[in-house]
Amino acid sequence: MGDKGSRSKTAAKRAAVGEVELRRRVRPGIRAMLADLMAWHDIEEQAEAIQLLALNADSVQLLPPAAGVELLRHRARRGLIAKLESLAGGDPQIIGLVVESLIVTAHAAGPKGYCIMILIPHHEITISPKVARRLAEFVPTPDDA
Predict the structure, then answer these.
(1) Longest Cα pair distance anywhere in the chain, in angstroms?
(2) What is the pTM of this model?
(3) Residue 139's pLDDT is what?
(4) Average pLDDT score, the chain
(5) Are the C-beta atoms of residues 107 and 114 closer than 8 Å to each other?
(6) Rounded distance, CA 70 to CA 98, Å?
């Protein structure tokens, strides 16, 4: 029961944050290209690699449509789905083509060239004067030594 119970808890958490599993058919070689991208930057999860590609993209040059034969599966939350729909020009039917195009473009840039396409966004942290004073209370002074 423990395994089944933990799976239901995980499913409940995913539902609470709006996470869904996306499955799409992609042209041959796309999964191998994604695996290369992940290996180049030590990324373990397909969803993370796809999310970074999408979040760092302002636009995408779409590949011509083609029949897909490989299955690509990843999880996505509302924000990523909204970004992919935005890149697709509001057409949810071509999200799969957007993902394929992002992967092909990044892979074509090579291990060093695509770095900017998969950067992890960093947030600027600003410490208020009040917090700085509180933190200073915990820092030992030379007199304390």
Answers:
(1) 72
(2) 0.70
(3) 76
(4) 83
(5) yes
(6) 16
